[in-house]
Automatic annotation (TrEMBL):
UniProt key word Cell wall biogenesis/degradation: no
Lineage: superkingdom: Bacteria
Organism: Streptomyces solincola
Protein name: Disulfide bond formation protein DsbA
Keyword Ribonucleoprotein in annotation: no
Amino acid sequence: MQSRRVSQASDEVSRIRKRRAVVAAVAAVLLGTAAVVGSLLSGDDSPPRWKEAAGRPVTAPRHTSGPDGTRVLLGRPSASHTLQVYEDPRCPGCALVERVIGADVRKDVRRGKYRLQYVGATFLDGDSLDGDRVRTGAFGEGSKAALSALGAALDTGEEAFLAYKDALYSARFHPDERDDRFGDEDYLLEVADSVPALRGNAAFHQAVRDRTYDAWALAMARAFQQSGTTATPKLVLDGQDLTTADGGSLPLSAEQYREAVDRRLAAR
């Protein structure tokens, strides 16, 4: 039964990635078209929210470092290993993996087995890199808006951030990737109300309403694009992709995850 569930999960992730490849191809065509007809357009055709954000200085949440606060490294500073997690808030494959191994990851971070470096993406909005800036896409705003709200949660604290990320990916709240529900601030706050540290948290709610971390969300999206990573979810432990023993796929069960982590750390 466990083997069948893992196989079904693997098939689902493969299907999702193929569908996202089509989305990325369409986004590239749209970007090329925009470049051709750009002289016929009056200014940037980005949604007003993100056009305004792109012109603001970046306000980085607490618990970040690096250029524009795009280095999000969580856990004990004494930990000698680092797990990098690349995720798009709207990504159903990310939701699937989070539901299967998320609790184990959080437990390992708390125990100091490794630090967790989070890299957020927005390509399911259709966003792409145009020189040194993010060109917003035609498929919505939910990934960017959720990433901005995650910034507000991170400013509250590391545990609040991890709990909110878990809630966003939960079966209860995570929408179909074609549904841009995360673009609705009221919905993002509804999700936050399931997190004790954020429920009734006036500073968090105000930051989401004021869109305090919109420019940071764009900076994070740019960092993801510049990383060279082309798909989510992606797990990288100490610089190497974290995969199952056959080296061919992500860990899609708690058992596969623990085996992959223990095998990698034993080899160090």
